[in-house]
Amino acid sequence: MTAIKTADESRPAADFMIGLVHPFDIRGTKIGGLETYLRDFVTFCPENTRILFIGVDAVGDLALGKIHRMSFRGRTFDYMPVLHYRDEQAREAARKVTDSITAQFFMGLLRYFPAIAGAFKARRCSMDLRRVEFAWLPVALRVPFVQMLHGEGVPRLAMDSLLKKYRFVHSLGERFAVARSQKFLCVNPHITERLRRTYPKHGAKIDTLWTWVNTDIFKPQPFLREKKPFRVIFAGRLDDFKNPPLMFKTVAALWARFSGDLEFHYIGTSDPSRFPEFSAIEGMTVRHGFKDAAGMAATLASADAGILTSEFEGMPRCVLETLAVGRPVVAVHLPQLEFAIKDGVSGYLVSRGQTEKEIIAAMVDRFADVKKAISDGEMTPAEIADMIKTFTPNNQLARVYRFHHDIQRGDVALPDAMAQSVTG
To answer: What is the pLDDT of residues 175-197, one digit of tens each?
Structure first.
C-alpha cells in the first residue's frame, strides 16, 4: 500500500538526490521490466539518498504539478504527477499518437515544466532515465543524467508499439542521449557492443547493466508434489514482439503431447483473446491478472516451468524471476539468455533458425525433457536459482546509485553548464 502525504520541505536534507522520470504510477497495477525497475529503485535506495519521481497519476486522486510525499514498501520519496492516465488505458499499446501514454506524458512535462524546473532547482540532483525520448528534459534543466536502454526493436519485426511507425523518434533520442548523458547503460552486452560501434566517440560512457531480480522475494521453492497437471507459466504484457501466437500454438501442441495433463498460467493484464490462437487453449488457461511482487513469486512457484517466445528482448525479467523461484524456462533462443539458461540445468534454449512448425516441435520436446528431469530429481530449484545469483540488486542496482553519487560528488566530468547547475 502506498501512503500519500503533503510534501514536507522541513525534513533533513539527504546527501544525494536522484530524479526519476517515467510515465508510470508506482501505486498502479502495471507490470513489466521497466515498472519493476522503478519499484525496486525506490525499494533499495540508500538511506543517504532521496528520490524525486516525475510520473503519472493512475488513480485520479493527486493534484498535477504538485509534489506529494509518498511511501512505498517502507521507503519515502517525493512524487509529482504530470498526467492522469488510468492503468486500464495503458494495458494495450496505443495505435495512434493521441492515445499514446508516451505522447501525453511528453505534453504533461511541457505543461508543468515550470513546476518541474522549480523542484529540481531546489535540489542538488542528477536524473535517472529509462526512455531516451525524455533525454531532452535533463538537458533543458541543466541536470546531469544517467540513461538506460532496456531493449531495442528490430525494424523488420512487428512491434506492438508506435515505434514501428515512428522509429526515427527513438533513433534521434538515442543519439541525443548517448551524446549528452554522463553514463549510458544497456541491459545486455550485445546492445552495449552495438552502441559502442555506432558511437565510438562516446564509447567510454557506454556500459552494461544487467536486469536483476529481488531475491529477498523471489526465492527457490520446492516443486509442488501433489498430483496436478503440468503447469507452464508466462508473466508480462502480451506485446506483439513477444510472439503470443507462437506461445499459444506451443501450449496447444504441448497439451496434445501430454494428453491433456497440462495447464497454462498467465500473469498480466493484457487480453490474450485478441489473438485468434488463444481460443485453442482458453479452456486450459488460468488468468491471474495483476500480481504484486510477493504474489508474482508465489504464483511462479506454483508452476513447473516458464515459457518465452519473444522475437527480441533486453533481458526479460520474467525469465529471471521464474528462475529465481527455482523453475526452469524453455525459450526460443536469444543471445543474452545464454547467461541464465543452461540446457539441462535451468531449462532449454531452442534454436531460432527453423520454421515455426519445427520450433514448436522442439519446444514441446524440451518441455517433455523438463517434465522428466523434474520427476527424476535431475532439475532442482536450488541449482536452477543458482544460475541468476549475480542478477541481484546488490550486484546490479547498487552500481546505478554509485554512478549518481559519483556525478553529484564531481567525480564525473560534466559540461560547464551542468556543473554549475549541480554545484550551485
So the answer is: 999 999 999 999 888 889 999 99
